[in-house]
Design brief:
The structure is a homopentamer. In chain A, β3 and β4 form a beta hairpin. The first copy, chain A, has one helix and seven strands. The first copy, chain A, is mainly β and about 90 residues long. Chains A and B meet through β1, β2 and β4 of A and β5, α1, β6 and β7 of B.
Chain lengths: ~90, ~90, ~90, ~90, ~90
């Protein structure tokens, strides 16, 4: 998993039906010291807000299990909110 | 997922039969600020045009589910058109 | 697999229930000569301490087999403590 | 998928039996403008020659389906010859 | 697959039982021109020695098939010794 900071939400009106009603977050991947290194678009499951530090899990099988679906075009998910790294 | 801009179409007359009749798009991966960082060749499912910003999902199992096939040599798919990131 | 050095633990009170009771380690990926190159958040199974050199396996199916679960949102695991590279 | 240029063939007399009788190609990954960015060793299925531009699919499940085997140590395959990108 | 040069062996006395009795090799990934670009820790199946050029396959399903196990925490395997690239 990686740590990321939520930077915004993605609006994609023309998309695969799987994404209907799901929040897509633009997440800046960050190093533990806070520097930014790329980004990923992830589906939210912990109701994270812009500016929060989150845990990103980027694997299709994990993602489908989280949504309890056998099939679904999904790979990256926000699985946790980071409180502290110590 | 990643955001990309459609840069062109790929013509591959000698290829695996799975690709017959499918549109292959050359997609420049972009950062949210618009800078380009590599590319991917993806199969189109939302009828995206050159110059449009799209969502790229890059995972084989997801891709096969989108085309409703159990097998098929495919990994990257254009799954949405991006309207806004805010 | 990669070699990493345990740099700390991650506290994520709001997260997927799978992570309840599991130790999440911040692991700095290192080259054999000791230089740092990125990091990964991994679940611990060998009780590694901060400062120890460890083996990181980063694949979902492997990770779920280690925890003996058919499903679970997990990908990276600390699978060994490195004694020597010679 | 990625675009690559075939740079040579790999001779590996001591290898897993799966590779017996298969052509292993050294493929330089290229950007659409022609610059080289790394390489991959891929199994050929379209009889590509040195210097030709090809499509590389890099996923194990796809690769095994192409060879119609349930198991097999394979991941990258040359799945097409690129005629034009426009 | 990638080409690598075996640089050493990894001693990990505290590790997952799957690795008992298996040789773990530190493999420097190399470009065809010989420059080094990162490394990977892989399990050996062709009895490669330090200094030899080898083929690395980095995919979990392939790796488990090579060891004929349905489960096992493994991803990268040395699958061949490279004689020549021409």
């Amino acid at each position: 998993m990686k740590v990321a900071e939520v930077a915004g939400t993605v609006v994609s009106p023309i998309s695969h039906p799987f994404f209907d009603g799901k929040r897509l977050l633009l997440c800046d991947l960050i190093d533990p010291d806070g520097t930014v290194g790329g980004y990923v678009i992830a589906v939210d499951v912990v109701n994270a807000g812009v500016g929060e530090r989150v845990l990103i899990l980027d694997e299709g099988s994990s993602a489908r299990q989280i949504f309890d679906v056998a099939t679904g075009p999904i790979r990256a998910v926000v699985v946790g909110i980071v409180d502290e790294i110590a």
